[in-house]
């Protein structure tokens, strides 16, 4: 069974409200670009690939209903610009917007409004299949790479945040690697961090693991170094919101400290991400804009206050792991690369941002 974060039939889109998981499974209609913007901003849907796919599918829903009238290109441009502004760190929405806009402009040279709408809708609908296919390749390349480095029958992985079916069109990236290892019968166990403050690990990764029978143990973020020392961790595998030219990687806050602890313990540290999460236009991680989220995500849980009233809060949603700490490699649908190899491997394959 694979969990579905996104339900799409031509002209209709629903998302699983991830704010209510794991206790309630509620699908909500997304009828417009504005609905998608709000769902992304409030994190009802989250995870870099899923953000881009839901954003673009919401546009397809509106186009199917005839939005844009005689000037769909302007409607598409304004919609994509709005969607890209919802969350700044993940690059996938910005990349999809750039590629889709280029496609729409080219199509508009030879097609009327109705034909243009149809071809843009098909381009968007293909994103779902492309993402799942890419994730399966990531899972396979990652599993083989990890297994090639160990003499043991089975491996133990530590992961962070949620990078599974709920964060993508399906299968997942870092959790896709875990899924592939499990399918090969070579996964002993995955340790998943709770992932404070939003708890994607305890609410979502744990939910996926339980639903799919993957042996998993939940730890708090502060137990990670101890887990590395005591639990014979074979590799740490995390996802990415943006991987830049030198391999520096923005991912859920807490990733950086995992990489430092992995280095200390001599454990390979991998980033698993589709090439759509890579951004060769930025040279180093210092150039990545880090989203800072509301204080309430730290000071309360489900509306229940847990912090001293009046305390000041800093709540960056992501951190940047320097490429020197990504010792295992960057697992993409094109293969596994060292950070120093990434730029050459992707040049010519990615559109400029
Ligand atoms: C395949 S998802 C990769 C990343 O987007 C994931 O690790 C992550 O950081 C998600 O953050 P979120 O704030 O939940 O959108």
From TrEMBL:
<dbReference type="InterPro" id="IPR000649">
    <property type="entry name" value="IF-2B-related"/>
</dbReference>
<dbReference type="InterPro" id="IPR011559">
    <property type="entry name" value="Initiation_fac_2B_a/b/d"/>
</dbReference>
<dbReference type="InterPro" id="IPR037171">
    <property type="entry name" value="NagB/RpiA_transferase-like"/>
</dbReference>
<dbReference type="Pfam" id="PF01008">
    <property type="entry name" value="IF-2B"/>
</dbReference>
<comment type="pathway">
    <text>Amino-acid biosynthesis; L-methionine biosynthesis via salvage pathway; L-methionine from S-methyl-5-thio-alpha-D-ribose 1-phosphate: step 1/6.</text>
</comment>
<protein>
    <recommendedName>
        <fullName>Methylthioribose-1-phosphate isomerase</fullName>
        <ecNumber>5.3.1.23</ecNumber>
    </recommendedName>
</protein>
<keyword id="KW-0413">Isomerase</keyword>
<comment type="function">
    <text>Catalyzes the interconversion of methylthioribose-1-phosphate (MTR-1-P) into methylthioribulose-1-phosphate (MTRu-1-P).</text>
</comment>
<keyword id="KW-0028">Amino-acid biosynthesis</keyword>
<feature type="active site" description="Proton donor">
    <location>
        <position position="241"/>
    </location>
</feature>
<keyword id="KW-0963">Cytoplasm</keyword>
<comment type="similarity">
    <text>Belongs to the eIF-2B alpha/beta/delta subunits family. MtnA subfamily.</text>
</comment>
<dbReference type="InterPro" id="IPR005251">
    <property type="entry name" value="IF-M1Pi"/>
</dbReference>
<dbReference type="InterPro" id="IPR027363">
    <property type="entry name" value="M1Pi_N"/>
</dbReference>
<dbReference type="InterPro" id="IPR042529">
    <property type="entry name" value="IF_2B-like_C"/>
</dbReference>
<feature type="site" description="Transition state stabilizer">
    <location>
        <position position="161"/>
    </location>
</feature>
<keyword id="KW-0486">Methionine biosynthesis</keyword>
<keyword id="KW-0539">Nucleus</keyword>
<dbReference type="GO" id="GO:0016853">
    <property type="term" value="F:isomerase activity"/>
</dbReference>
């Amino acid at each position: 069974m694979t969990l579905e974060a996104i339900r799409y039939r031509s002209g209709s889109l629903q998302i699983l409200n991830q704010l209510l998981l794991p206790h309630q499974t509620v699908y909500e209609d997304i009828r417009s670009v504005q609905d998608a913007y709000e769902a992304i901003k409030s994190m009802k849907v989250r995870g870099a690939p899923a953000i881009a796919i839901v954003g673009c599918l919401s546009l397809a829903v509106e186009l199917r209903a005839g939005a844009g009238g005689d000037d769909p290109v302007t409607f598409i441009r304004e919609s994509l610009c709005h969607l890209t502004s919802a969350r700044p760190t993940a690059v996938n929405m910005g990349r999809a917007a750039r590629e889709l806009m280029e496609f729409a402009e080219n199509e508009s040279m030879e097609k009327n409004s109705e034909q243009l709408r149809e071809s843009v809708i098909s381009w968007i609908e293909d994103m779902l299949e492309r993402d799942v296919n890419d994730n399966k390749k990531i899972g396979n390349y990652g599993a083989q790479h990890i297994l090639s480095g160990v003499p043991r029958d089975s491996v133990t992985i530590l992961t962070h945040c949620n990078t599974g079916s709920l964060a993508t069109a399906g299968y997942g990236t870092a959790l896709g690697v875990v899924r592939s290892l499990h399918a090969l019968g070579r996964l002993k166990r995955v340790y998943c961090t709770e992932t404070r403050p939003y708890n994607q690990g305890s609410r979502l990764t744990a939910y996926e693991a339980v639903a799919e029978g993957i042996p998993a143990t939940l730890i708090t973020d502060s137990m990670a170094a101890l887990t590395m020392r005591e639990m014979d961790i074979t590799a740490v595998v995390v996802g990415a919101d943006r991987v830049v030219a030198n391999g520096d990687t923005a991912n859920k806050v807490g990733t950086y400290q995992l990489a430092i602890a992995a280095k200390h313990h001599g454990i390979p540290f991998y980033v698993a991400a589709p090439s759509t999460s890579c951004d060769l236009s930025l040279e180093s991680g210092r150039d990545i804009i880090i989203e800072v989220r509301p204080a309430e995500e730290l000071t309360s849980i489900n509306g229940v206050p847990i912090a001293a009233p009046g305390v000041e809060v800093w709540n960056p949603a992501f951190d940047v792991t320097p490429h020197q700490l990504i010792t295992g490699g960057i697992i993409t649908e094109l293969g596994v690369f060292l950070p120093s190899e990434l730029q050459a491997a992707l040049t010519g394959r990615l559109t400029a941002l």
